[in-house]
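Example (one chain per record):
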Amino acid sequence: MAKLDQEKYSLALKKINDIYQRAMLDLERLKKQGKQIITTAKKKQDEEKISQILKNIK
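Predicted structure:
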């Protein structure tokens, strides 16, 4: 009985570890996407500022 419980525990631990690993990969992917969104937003802001400056010059 104890051996069966140990096997169930080991299997459950492996499943938890797999879920954790997938969650960490998802987190890294989301971090990269977030950085890309921020970079894109900053570029857009810069383009708008440049456009405004050029309008003021004319």
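Caption: The radius of gyration is 25 Å.
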